[in-house]
Write a structure and sequence with these properties.
3-stranded antiparallel sheet, mainly alpha, 516 residues, Alpha-Beta Plaits
Length: 516
């Protein structure tokens, strides 16, 4: 039963969210010579100015009509260059910066007011809804999670899923249609990095806010577990400081902006030519970033995973894991626990890892040799473009996060993250970490399996007293936190060997073995 404060908070949040969506069509668009001069490269400016002459001065009521006319003009210009075999003069798209600069009207003039209004309504409303939670008893109980339309693929979950998918599609493929959202964050961007906001700044800000707000929810919900408190505070800290503030400050001081906790192969563009050149041009600090990023995956992963398991990254540091643990917590029970899903997971996630390795080798070969292809047919530019679109955008964003309310919170981590695959291989075969079980205490309530976001049937292991050493386990510890009998414990101990043989099911003083 919701309290009065929670109802007020929910109402405020929904108003703020509705306002956030409603600002998208509020601008008008006017193409002027000033807009073109600010956004188009000098060597292409005159061509674009002539191609868009019929648009200049016109007032467009929507971004769709403005972008449509602009793109048609650029397409016609490029078609002329192609007919005259002047491919070296082809004009880039520029649709996003041109649309943003052409925005005018009431909203662009008052974007700061809208920013603070939406922030107060959404964040304040969310906290009003979350904070009364301490009145309830800590831990997991029968709270109707499989009957709630928000947490069991009901209509609320479908609406949330639709919004998330739409957001990621705009972010990655059509940012010119979300220019009002970018304008909304311009003042904050100017404060942090000294420049205007981009769609990636908007994404990073929203990403961090969501982890912070939903992180408070996690702290309250799992307040009975010190481990959950530690790891939630850890992901909140690393996302805010390492993934958000430090890169923005580096950009402010004209240094290569890099998330110091992110690493290859998750950061798949780390060894792309333009990023290597950027670091080399930055001098000593840039070389440090290159060495740091290389040492992190080459030395940090095997050493830290040996001592702590993959949880040191996937549950304590990673931004993807942080979003899954906070925003995705209401959906963790939706992960597929079937054996078929596990088999598919192993094939797909390791295939992505192989794809990332091959792509990086080809990119580095092209960088050092100057040859665009290997063996005459392996085009490194085409392959890295395909990886960025299919894996970096569609898989990690649209599917990995957009489908939280349908497939659970760790779809990307289970099926797509190449770094998770690398960490998992080390954890499975050379790590001191495991989840130990006490089958004699297990009452087969199923809480552990229900709330395992990685799709592991933890109860199967617990009933047999078998240690959980699956490579997919991220060591989130929720299975232990929701167990009413203390059957499961997270350990880093090399003094005893890990028990991986399936023993008999133990219930009370009786045991029996299932015949294969």
């Amino acid at each position: 039963m919701r309290t009065t404060g929670q109802r007020i908070g929910l109402t405020a949040f929904l108003i703020g969210f509705a306002l956030f969506v409603a600002i998208l069509p509020l601008s008008r668009y006017v193409l002027t010579d000033k807009v073109l001069s600010e956004t188009i490269q000098k060597e292409q400016l005159e061509d674009v100015r002539m191609a868009t002459a019929s648009m200049q001065g016109n007032v467009y009521a929507s971004s769709f009509s403005f972008v449509g006319d602009y793109r048609a003009a650029i397409a016609q210009l490029n078609e002329g260059f192609k007919r005259r075999n002047e491919n070296n003069r082809l004009v880039q798209d520029y649709a996003f910066p041109v649309t943003k600069a052409a925005s005018t009207g009431f909203f662009p003039d008052n974007s700061g007011l809208f920013f603070w209004l939406i922030l107060v309504l959404c964040v304040g409303g969310a906290f009003l809804y979350i904070l009364p939670e301490p009145r309830t008893l800590p831990g997991i109980k029968n709270n109707g999670i499989y009957q709630d339309p928000a947490t069991n693929r009901g209509w609320i979950g479908v609406v949330v899923c639709g919004f998330l998918i739409g957001f990621y599609v705009l972010l990655y493929f059509f940012p010119e249609y979300m220019t009002n959202w970018v304008l909304l964050f311009d003042p904050l961007s100017q404060l942090l990095n000294g420049g205007p906001a981009s769609q990636w700044f908007v994404y990073g800000t929203l990403y961090t806010l969501v982890i912070l707000v939903m992180g408070v929810r996690m702290l309250i919900k799992y307040r009975h577990s010190r481990y959950q408190q530690f790891r939630t505070l850890s992901v909140m800290f690393f996302q805010t400081v390492f993934a958000f503030l430090i890169p923005e400050l580096l950009a402010f001081f004209h240094q290569p902006a890099q998330d110091l906790k992110n690493m290859w192969p998750l950061d798949y563009s780390f060894y792309f030519d333009y990023r290597i050149d950027e670091k080399i041009k930055a001098g000593t600090f840039g070389i440090f970033l290159l060495v740091w990023g290389t040492a992190l995956w080459l030395l940090g992963v095997p050493i830290l995973t040996y001592f702590f398991g993959k949880r040191w990254y996937c549950s304590w540091v990673c931004g993807c894991g942080g979003l899954a643990e906070t925003l995705g917590d209401p959906y963790r029970q939706l992960s597929d626990k079937r054996l078929g899903a596990w088999k598919l997971e192993r094939i797909v996630v390791h295939s992505v890892l192989v794809f990332a390795v091959v792509m990086t080798v080809l990119v580095l070969y092209t960088y050092w040799s100057g040859q665009p292809s290997v063996l005459g047919f392996l085009d490194s530019y085409g392959i890295r473009s395909a990886y960025g679109s299919a894996i970096g955008a569609v898989f990690a964003g649209v599917l990995g996060t957009g489908f939280y309310p349908v497939f659970g919170s760790r779809v990307w981590c289970r099926f797509g993250c190449p770094l998770a695959a690398y960490l998992g291989l080390v954890q499975r075969f050379k790590s001191r970490f495991r989840i130990t079980t006490n089958g004699g205490q297990c009452i087969s309530c199923g809480n552990c399996s229900t709330y395992c976001e990685m799709g592991i049937d933890v109860r199967w292991y617990a009933q047999r007293g078998q240690d959980v050493v699956r490579s997919s386990c991220v060591g989130c510890g929720i299975c232990s936190a929701v167990c009413p009998r203390g059957v499961l414990n997270l350990e880093n101990d090399s003094t005893t060997s890990r028990r991986t043989d399936p023993g008999p099911i133990v219930l009370g003083n009786n045991s029996f073995r299932i015949q294969q």
